[in-house]
Every structure is written in C-alpha cells, then in structure tokens.
Sequence to fold (380 residues):
Amino acid sequence: MNNKTFTRPWRPLTAKGKTTAVSGHPTIRALRILHVLFSSKIAGSERYCADLANGQADLGHEVHVAGNYGAPITSLLSKDVIFHGLRSPFLRGMKLRRLITGAAIEIGHAHLGPACRALASAPDHVTKIATLHVGFKERQHARLDGVICVNSTQITRLGGYAGHAQVISNWLPANTNDSALDLRSRLGLRPGIKIIGAVGRLHPSKGFDMLVSAFRKSAPDDAVLVIVGEGSHRAALAKMAAGDSRIHLPGHCDNVTGFLGCLDVFVSPSREETFGLAILEAMREGLPVITTATEGPSEYLRHYPVTFVEPGSADNLSRALADALRPQRIVGAGSVVYDLSPFSRSTGVANVLDFYLQVANAAGKPVTAISARAMLTNAW
Fold:
C-alpha cells in the first residue's frame, strides 16, 4: 500500500481556549474546522459527526457543520457549533468552496459519500479528512489527504490510497438526553414482559429482518421486540411482523438512552458493521448484548462478555435469543458491568484533532493563525 499510517499517541488540549505544547509537535491551538454531512436522517454516522463537532467546540475550536437545509442533525449540535444549511444539492461543490473561503476553514472533515465527493473539490490549502463510517471507496476518498479508519480491518483495505490513514475507534458519545422513558406504558405492556430492543437505520445491511425472523421463531409469549429507527426497509419489516402483536416498529427515537434503559436485552443483528455506537450505549446501560461478529464488534468487543453470532444467520440468532430469554437468565439478573474506559470521548476527540495536525503538516498544509472571520448566514 502507498498510504501513510500514523501511530502517534493523542495529545489533549488542557482546557477550552488554551493550548498544549508538545516536544517535536506543533502547538495545538484553536482551529477552524468544517464538518460536511449531507443527510436527512439521524443514525450512527450523524451522531458521531455531531458529537465530534460538539466536543471540538467545547475545547475552544471554531467548528462549522455544512449539511442539508433543515437537517435533523441540527437538534444534536451545541450552540457553539455553526450550522450552514444548503437548500439544494445543485452546485453543492461550489457552495462548499464559497463557505470554506468565507469562513477561512483550515480543516475539512467529511462524513459519508456525498460529503466526501463535495469536499474533494475544496481549495488546496484545506486539509481534507474523512471518517470511514462504511468503508473505503476510491471514487469518494482518493482525493482526500487523510482517512480515519474506525477498525483495524479497514486500514488493510485501502489499496493504493496515497493519503494518510490512522485507526481511531469510535467512542461512547455524550449523553445528550438522560430523561426517563416509560416504554412499557407507551406500548401497554403488563408487568413481567421482557423487552428485546434494537436501534438503527432500517436498511437490509442492518439485519433487522433476521432479528424479526429469529424473534418470531424463538421468543416466548411474554417477550416483545422493539426496533427503533427509520429507513427504506421499514415497509418490508412491517410486512414480516404482520399478525404478531409482540413486534413493534415505533420509528425514530430522539431519546436513545431512555429507550435503552427500558430494555432487558439489546441486539445488534447487522450483516455488516464497521463499529456500532448503539452497542456502546447499550453497554453503558449495563444491558446483556447479542451482536453479530461483524468486523467492528468482533474487534473491539472480543474481550467483553457479549454473545456473538454469525452474521446473516437467523438460526444462530434465534438460538442466542432463546438462551438470553431463559427465565434463569432474566429473573433477578443485575446489570452487566463493562469496562468502558477504552471508549473515552475525550481521548477519541483528542485523537482526531491530533490526526488533523499530523496530516496537515505532512501534506505541507500547516495550519495558519486564527482569523476572526466566520460565515454569518446559516442558509443558502
């Protein structure tokens, strides 16, 4: 491979607005950062982007996010993050270049394919980064200066990519909504009913069809399945669940933490998964976790007390559910205690900032002095 891999450790900012000088490393000071994400929904990639932007703003950086006008990600952004809504995809690259020039952006960070393609046409002085939320694609990432791999398998699949790469695993995002959710009352469930839950984009890659099949095959009458999320696979899932009153598809949930707090077991049935933020959030709630052994979870959860099943196997998932729902496994069971220290948010945010600086300097694009200028308009 031609790509350059960085392995230097992270170096944190000491406090908001302050800098830390490191021997042999540029002083970390306030940067002008633009995140680019053209999405009209909220799923794992969107929550990663928002949490990273908020964390960078908390450290005193000037952080912008460009996205679709009226995009729901705005509900996740802190007041210190400046959102720029593009009303139309027409001439998106040109609009992005105008934004970058007007706001004197130094670091551009793209999330998902459309954003990567748009950022690739940014002015040459901008350091262009992408996070591989799905996987490396030559047509999307080849013209970018650096890519963040969220698991070690991704970094072996970069082919002839000439930019810089580093593995920076996802972290446990900040809990922005800790209000209680009375899911049992909402669904009219009697006491003693066991709740199996899943969270994610309703897409075939997420494997929710297998979860529905496995649940219908193995779950007892005193259990329900609740899958929260929206997506193109919703109608197909509703058809599969037809006639089974135990299966619920309530749609998007803006209180994931509250939802998870109501569950007895969490399931991630993905056919492919680079990481899986919802799994970490379920672990924060102390839930038993069943997950497919996809490339992300099988790497970062290999030493944790979770149940792995073969990706794409409804039969294996059915057996795992049956085992998890045995009365002796549920009745009187306490929370599972997970060591979540490897998924520190502060460490993850600092690792990303350090990667920015390493790529900028290696690419001959050292960051310049801070400018007071910023875009004042939030709509195009």
The longest strand covers residues 62-68. The chain has two domains: 4-171+344-362, 183-330. The radius of gyration is 22 Å. The first helix runs from residue 44 to 58.
